[in-house]
Design goal:
With about 475 residues, the protein is α/β, with parallel strands linked by helices. The protein has 15 helices and 20 strands.
């Protein structure tokens, strides 16, 4: 029976998809396993060629795919088109890194012995991908795994189920043209119960999950049950920004507003709390609110829309409850619904909310919001700022806004986060490892380390006679 995808644009069913039965899922895994046994022996150059040809097929249908993304989860069409463009940068970077990252590592010479480390494919990777950046989240694992010599099963979020098919279709067309094995990258829409069954039957070799902390714990428990497979988790964030007196003021304000509200704030590395030095406080708050009011909330398919709906009514209600609780506890709202034209086509359109007089007892400042709401907080000095920024169970990214490079580097060393930015935020550099600490994740993707994480090291210790 077809499963519906309800669009946040208007609350109507926009698309449908089919769930695989458990028996059909087992067959897909078996084909992936057979394909991987062939692919693991392929040359790196062939793997690079397959990824680049698949990218061409994806881009050939970019307009259709971007529109599907927008209608499925609500991001403005321009942002969906930008996501497809960013996929190219990710794939090209991983392809460039692969020959060196996956090459045998020779050890120092030892008379009579030949010793080296080989990075062998892990096998079949189950990629459980999130809906908020449905192609970018998936491609990190898909391209990396294919380059490492693995097969990939894409179990996408139900809200963006069509994106697994978009990627699988592109790789299948490329494989047919280049003579690569069929079934290497597969769309794998199955129920949660059947995912657990597949894991319990030890049919896959690694799981990569992107989603909530709760979901990460569930996947980790399921994978650990009677298994020793590796698990990579990219989870939530409550990412802080620190604004210092010597920042480039206009640049900082504009970038922090974009970092907060891009994709309606539905990014694991979105700015979710801002700490501002007291000497800049009044000026910064006024400018931040003015910049926020420039956002255009509306139909994400319409030209000029910069803020679309959040993903569903449940998410909208949760965000509104978090804001209301903060206000009840003493926070003050500086923007209101009256500042924006709010469509009435669904309950998913939320006007952006900027709050002050916040504290860390409020969920707004200590739990992931994942929506268009932000708390601004005045700080006296860097010591207070670092203590507040680290006062979180999350640790994905943090950013420092200053012209003083040495100061930024010193602060970066003190901050508890997988990535620390200076004068930048809400960005993934594919040549750097994407990693979270605390409840923000486990394992690594992207960079040469992410490629190696999709392999197993094997030692060769050969005595020459």
């Amino acid at each position: 029976m077809p499963e519906p995808i309800v669009s946040p644009i208007d609350g109507q069913v926009a698309h449908e998809y089919e769930l695989l039965s458990l028996d059909a899922a087992r067959e897909v895994v078996a084909r992936a396993r057979a394909a991987q046994q062939v692919w693991r022996r392929s040359a790196i150059a062939d793997r690079v060629a397959l990824c680049m040809r698949a990218l061409e097929h994806l881009e050939a249908r970019a307009d259709d795919y971007a529109r599907e993304i927008t209608t499925m989860m609500g991001k403005p069409l321009g942002e969906a088109q930008g996501e497809l463009r960013t996929v190219r940068g990710r794939v090209e970077a991983l392809c460039e890194l692969a020959p060196r990252a996956l090459a045998d590592e020779a050890l120092p010479e030892q008379p009579g012995f030949h010793r080296f480390i080989r990075h062998e494919p892990v096998g079949v990777v189950l990629d459980i991908a999130a809906w908020n950046y449905p192609l970018l989240v998936a491609i990190n694992v898909v391209a990396g795994a294919v380059l490492a010599g693995d097969a990939v099963l894409i179990k996408h979020a139900p809200q963006t189920a069509l994106c697994g098919a978009q990627l699988a279709r592109s790789f299948a067309a490329a494989a047919a043209e280049l003579g690569a094995p069929a079934g290497l990258v597969a769309d794998f829409m199955v129920s949660h119960a059947d995912v657990a069954a597949i894991l319990g039957e030890r049919r896959v070799d690694q799981v990569a999950f992107t989603g909530s902390v709760r979901g990460g714990h569930e996947v980790f428990r399921a994978a650990a049950q009677d298994n020793f497979m590796s698990v990579a988790l990219e989870l939530g964030g409550k990412d802080p920004a620190l604004v210092l007196p010597d920042c480039d003021f206009e640049f900082t304000v504009a970038n922090l507003v974009e970092g907060t509200f891009y994709n309606a704030g539905q990014s694991c590395c979105a700015i979710e709390r801002v700490y501002v030095h007291e000497s800049l406080w009044d000026r910064f708050v006024e400018a931040y609110v003015a910049e926020t009011r420039k956002l255009r909330l509306g139909d994400p398919l319409a030209e000029g829309t910069s803020l679309g709906p959040v993903v569903n009514a449940h998410a909208a209600a949760r965000i509104q409850q978090q804001v209301a609780a903060a206000v009840s506890a003493g926070a003050r709202l500086l923007t209101s619904d009256d500042d924006f034209e709010i469509p009435d086509r669904s309950p998913c359109y939320l006007a952006p909310k900027v709050l002050v007089d916040v504290d860390h007892d409020m969920a707004l400042m200590n739990e992931e919001t994942f929506g268009p709401a932000i708390g601004l907080m005045k700080i006296r000095d860097e010591v207070e700022a670092v203590a507040l920024m680290n006062d979180s169970r999350y640790g994905l990214t943090a950013s420092v806004w200053t012209r003083d490079d040495a100061r930024a580097e010193a602060l970066a060393g003190a901050l508890e986060a997988g990535t620390v930015f200076q004068n930048r935020c809400d960005f993934l550099d594919p040549q750097l490892p994407w990693v979270g600490i605390k409840d923000s994740g486990h394992g690594v993707s992207l960079s040469h380390l992410g490629l190696r994480a999709l392999t197993r090291p094997k030692s060769f210790h050969l005595r020459r006679r």
